[in-house]
Write a structure and sequence with these properties.
heterodimer; A: Uridine Diphospho-n-acetylenolpyruvylglucosamine Reductase, domain 2; Uridine Diphospho-n-acetylenolpyruvylglucosamine Reductase, domain 3; 11 helices; B: Aldehyde Oxidoreductase, domain 3; Aldehyde Oxidoreductase, domain 4; 27 strands; globular; binds flavin-adenine dinucleotide
Chain lengths: 293, 793
């Protein structure tokens, strides 16, 4: 509860991706990957029992070439495992093509944390409150994993299994995230609610809409802090698809959200409040996405 | 004295260079040869329990451990970590019922974090590893988190001296019917045309000072105990420790370290008893005891939360008839400060408006929450939240403008202040209200926002407050100051009252330099260790400038008198006809005739007889001024706050757009420091009313003991701030000054609540007013135009 000492662990510093994979497969459940460490260190400090503590911490510090944020106008955006939230903000195409992610990165934590925390770390932490996670869920994409049996891609839709648990196998290292190139008429937005501005979200939402005029051709809606993992609002998406975004449609969309989520009471808010404002926040995100062409 | 050259300027802060360059030495920075490290083992799992078994053997055998101390290894005497009991007479002490109920290490855990035993080891790490090996078996007891629960029949008694777990109520002997006030409230209420009444809840707020508590203690070969601490009250802590450990005061030395923020949390002691008990167990070795934020959070006192009920009656013409109030606060597990806030919350209430009849009852109940004690404002924000909202509710019903109503009915010059018999010598509240109203655009915005449509609704609100300048007359108000002149005519001032970062030592230096007629740079001021500094009751009650400044001024005047007398001998002009400026003593009527102060101070110290003439060279003796000063009066400041808010009616979120704090300062010795106090106060006031609250689970464990889940306003949350200093010199304060240390946070509380009322027509009785509560309120009653509920004018 009150300690200045981090529990004992061995620090491993692989020099390459294959090195890292080897270490992961050797130590499996007893090893934790550390990118920026902004989640890992906090978890180690506040671990309730020794069972929650790793014997080995494997830092990606010395693995070369993973700090990239690369935009390819043909194929989309590639974010390396060591790219920080600040790196993402420094890449000018992100704001243009992936507005929701840019906005999530911008409101994320504070300058110090943004300089350290990685985008992939946010996905791998598998917290329902992750801001980048929420935006990425709405945008869609694939996580690239390297393991003993080679490289594979996992669609973000299949990535989070339960609270804190992802589809990553124990011997796998997440190497990068690939986001698709947005089609013409595609737009996105992100919104979050916090107690004060420096806080984790009590509710966050991201939308990606494919618009043709005022008609929504396709929609991906993601919401955080309302389920054990970030949540796709698939039933609400169905209410949008093929519809013109009139006030009535938006009203119906907003009204449908509380039925799709199962929030809880916690330190940041109540289940009741989250249900009450979930539709409002989604509606505003849709309006913002449409406003910001 | 002529035009002031230094008082009233923004002289550079004396502490700031060291702080921003990392050279300031906090207690945690103290490193001494042979230093050992202490760790207090605390009960984290229970808020109420008995220790059934304590096994220290494994901890004692842990590597690097020097000593382990259980309850039986330290003095069995109990203490009261607050120092209020030292500042009242013995008969008053008995009447108030102050008790010593805190053990150094306990066998009856009364709140989460209560101290169980101590470890002394060669390193901090070794101490912590050993602490983890202490085996404690507890027998859990029922947990009481509210006054209602603690006073229920059959509840476990916290201490035999306080039956029913009532730690304090206003004593009958001093307050008939245990109530503060006067007049026949019931009869007056019967005459009322309009009565407003409600039950409120005020939250438990943490000071959140930057520096977590840390100490070093050491016993030397002569048996003298030295404690390095950043207490706000070093002299009273010296006395407390001497009493606790049965030592004469000359064998207890306090070394005050730089204070990394106080706000009341360092009023008295926190872990000095544990640190010193450890040092006494290993004589010759300094012991350092440091706390982490999470530990500091649970062991240091916070603001008193509780239930606050109030009823106010008015005539249709707006005149107030009576106010009836009851504040039942939830103390933590121990007594400290139980009498203080329970009284002052009512005192501020009594000091505000001209109620012909007033009845305030204040009670404190033990609970298994963390400790409660002093926090900037000391009962005042609690009262402000309640009183100012009810006044605005009445104004809406009466169709009265809240600014005009306040101007008409607030107390002023000649009225009794917060303590009957001590009248207000000055009051510039009307000007605060006028200038504040103009700054926020009151008239126009009140009208404009009375009728609105749309999702976002704006409102402006006002609140006023009175506070105190010093502890007189309730508490001892005494301070000593020594001024000594060096041979080169520079001044060294010794004054024990701490600078907590509020700029007080800078302003005191300005007062000294102004009074002496010396340049600012030629005056040194230090708090000194307890063995060299004179008596002082500490930095609290917004007293440092009003009382301390008067003491410094008086001691400097004594020095000035001696300088002028000696100069008079040489100049052949009566001392009263001399003046000093820039260290030169000159004839007022003929400024060209004068003598340098240095010629006098040098001759006083290096005193030789001229071998040729046999004549002495000037007057012998080093010049010193000393004063043991008792404040003759109290000149409380007033203040008015204006807030503009925007309420999102779909989410309940409240954005504060602007906050204006207009303050009746009397005279600003250092205007920038005064503004800084008002701005910092706003940040804490906004937290109180909108976002801050310590929460407990049903078992009494703190849910938010760090900044992760305890939310203060950060830079991005802060509104536009305007501070207005209304300078209308007080006839008593030094250079006309009154206080500002605590005031800034008080009336933003009521102003924000009232702005929300103006915006959506709903009042909230529980602080903090979170979006969750606002949205619930809107769903229950709907958004109402202020104009439609009567306040349209
Ligand atoms: C003060 C503070 C404020 C914060 N504010 C926010 C906020 O506003 N919004 C928000 O969403 N989060 C916030 N966070 C949480 C945290 O910063 C983010 O989740 C961040 O993105 C984690 O990235 P990281 O690089 O620090 O991850 P790490 O702590 O290094 O790792 C996080 C998890 O991912 C795993 N992991 C990381 N990289 C890989 C990899 N390549 N392969 C396999 N597993 C991997 C780790 O094992 C661990 O389980 C905050 C944290 C702090 C301390």
């Amino acid at each position: 509860m009150s300690s200045r000492i981090l529990p004992d662990f061995d620090l491993l510093l692989p020099q390459s991706i294959p090195d890292a994979v080897e270490l992961l497969s050797a130590h499996r459940d007893r090893i934790t990957v550390m990118a920026g460490g902004t989640d890992v260190m906090v978890a180690m400090k506040f671990a309730q029992s020794p069972a929650q503590l790793p014997d080995y911490v494997m830092s990606l510090e010395n693995v070369p070439g993973l700090a990239y944020v690369l935009f390819d106008p043909e194929r989309g955006l590639r974010i390396g495992a060591k790219a920080t939230v600040a790196d993402l903000l420094a890449q000018s195409e992100v704001k243009r093509h992936y507005r929701a992610l840019w906005h999530a990165a911008q409101t994320f934590a504070t300058g110090q944390v943004r300089n350290t925390a990685t985008v992939l770390g946010n996905l791998l932490r598998a917290s329902p409150a992750g801001d980048c996670s929420c935006a990425i869920y709405a945008i869609g994409g694939v996580v690239v994993l390297h393991g003993t049996s080679g490289r594979r891609e996992v669609d973000i839709d299949d990535f989070w299994l339960s609270y804190g648990v992802t589809a990553r196998r124990p011997d796998e290292l997440a190497v990068e995230l690939i986001l698709p190139l947005p089609a013409a008429g595609s737009r996105s937005a992100f919104k979050r609610m916090t107690r004060t501005s420096e806080d984790l979200a009590k509710l966050n939402v991201a939308v990606r809409l494919e618009m043709s005029g005022n008609t929504c051709v396709d929609a991906r809606l993601a919401m955080g802090c309302v389920a054990p993992t970030p949540l796709r609002l698939t039933r609400t998406e169905a209410l949008l698809k093929g519809r013109e975004l009139t006030a009535e449609v938006l009203q119906r969309v907003a009204a449908s959200v509380p039925w799709e989520i199962s929030p809880i009471d916690d330190k940041r808010s109540t289940a009741e409040y989250r249900k009450q404002v979930s539709g409002v926040l989604l509606k505003r995100a849709i309006q913002e996405a449409c406003g910001a062409a | 004295m002529s035009e002031q050259a230094i008082v009233g300027t923004n002289a550079p802060r004396v502490d700031v260079r060291d702080k921003v360059t990392g050279q300031a030495q906090y207690a945690a920075d103290v490193r001494l040869p042979g230093m050992l490290y202490g760790k207090v083992v605390r009960c984290w799992e229970h808020a109420h329990a008995r220790v059934k078994r304590l096994d220290l053997s494994a901890a004692a055998a842990s590597p690097g451990v020097v000593r382990v101390l259980g309850p039986k290894d330290v003095t069995p005497k109990r203490y009261n970590s607050s120092v209020l009991d030292l500042m009242v007479s013995e008969s008053m002490h008995d009447m108030l019922g102050d008790i010593d109920d805190q053990p150094i290490f306990t066998e009856h855990v009364k709140f989460q974090g209560d101290a169980i035993c101590g470890i002394i080891a060669r390193s901090e790490e070794a101490a912590e590893r050993a602490a983890a090996k202490v085996v404690v078996e507890y027998e859990p007891l029922p947990v009481y988190l509210t006054a209602e629960a603690a006073k229920a029949p059959g509840a476990v008694q916290f201490t035999p001296e306080k039956p029913g777990n009532r730690a304090f109520q206003l004593p009958e002997a001093m307050f008939p019917n245990n109530a503060l006030g006067g007049g026949d409230v019931e009869a007056a209420m019967r005459e009322a045309d309009i009565v407003v009444e409600d039950a409120f809840y005020v939250p438990k707020q943490k000071q959140c000072q930057m520096e977590p508590h840390a100490y070093v203690a050491k016993v030397d070969s002569g048996g003298r105990l030295t404690c390095w601490t950043s207490s706000q009250m070093p002299k009273l802590v010296q006395r407390k420790l001497a009493k606790l450990f049965d030592l004469p005061m000359n064998l207890v030395k306090i070394v005050p370290t730089v204070i990394g923020g106080g706000f009341g949390t360092r009023l008295g002691m926190i872990s000095e008893p544990q640190a010193c008990a450890m040092a006494l167990a290993v004589p010759g070795h300094p012991v350092k005891l440091q706390t982490l934020r999470e530990e500091d959070w649970v062991i240091s006192p916070s603001r008193h939360p509780g239930k606050y009920w109030m009823r106010i009656g008015f005539k249709r013409d707006g005149s107030p008839l009576a106010c009836d109030a009851r504040f039942e606060n939830y103390k933590g597990g121990y007594y400290l400060d139980a009498s203080g806030t329970a009284f002052t919350a009512g005192a501020w209430l009594g000091g505000m408006y001209r109620f012909p009849a007033l009845r305030y009852r204040g009670e404190s109940y033990f609970t298994n929450q963390g400790l409660t004690g002093a926090y900037r404002g000391y009962g005042n924000p609690q009262t402000n939240f309640v009183l100012e909202q009810l006044i605005d509710r009445a104004c809406a019903g009466l169709g009265a403008d809240p600014v005009e109503w306040r101007k008409k009915w607030h107390k002023g010059v000649g009225d009794d202040g917060w303590c009957p018999g001590v009248t207000y010598p000055s009051c510039a509240l009307d000007e605060c209200l006028d200038r504040g109203a103009a700054a926020i655009g009151w008239t126009e915005k009140r009208r404009k926002y009375a009728r609105q449509t749309g999702t976002l609704r704006r409102g402006v609100g006002v609140a006023v407050m009175n506070h105190t300048s010093g502890a007189m007359p309730m508490l001892l108000e005494h301070t000593a100051c020594t001024v000594k002149l060096n041979e080169d005519a520079t001044a060294e001032i010794l004054f024990a009252c701490s600078d907590m970062g509020q700029g007080s030592h800078t302003a005191l230096k300005q007062i000294a330099a102004e009074t002496l007629g010396f340049p600012f740079e030629h005056v040194q001021l230090s708090g000194g260790t307890s063995d060299v500094a004179g008596f002082d009751i500490g930095a609290h009650a917004s007293r440092t400038i009003y009382v301390g400044g008067a003491a410094v001024k008086k001691a400097c005047e004594e020095v000035r008198r001696q300088l002028c007398e000696r100069a008079s001998l040489q100049l052949g002009v009566p001392a009263e006809q001399l003046d000093i400026r820039d260290k030169r003593i000159f004839v007022q009527a003929d400024p060209a005739r004068g003598i340098d102060a240095e010629a006098i101070t040098r001759a006083g110290v290096y005193h030789f007889v001229d071998p040729a003439t046999g004549e002495p060279g000037g007057v012998p003796g080093q010049i010193q001024g000393y004063v043991s000063f008792f404040a003759p009066h109290n000149s409380p400041p007033f203040g008015a706050s204006f807030a503009e808010v925007e309420v999102d009616t779909e989410t309940g979120e409240v954005r504060v757009l602007e906050l204006v704090n207009a303050h009746d300062i009397g005279r600003a010795i250092n205007p920038a420091a005064v503004e800084g106090q008002l701005e910092g106060g706003i940040q804490q006031g906004l937290g109180f009313v909108l976002s801050e609250e310590i929460c407990y689970d049903a078992d009494g464990r703190v849910q938010n003991n760090s900044f992760t889940d305890y939310k203060m306003f950060g830079p991005e949350d802060m509104p536009k701030i305007t501070t207005i200093l209304v300078e209308d010199a007080d006839p008593i304060g030094p250079f006309g000054a009154k206080s500002v240390g605590e005031s800034g946070l008080v009336s933003p509380v009521g102003a924000v609540a009232n702005a929300i009322f103006h915006a959506i027509g709903i009042q909230f009785t529980e602080a903090p007013i979170t979006p969750e509560k606002v949205l619930k309120g809107i769903r229950e009653t709907g958004v109402r135009d202020y104009g439609s509920i009567g306040g349209g004018r």
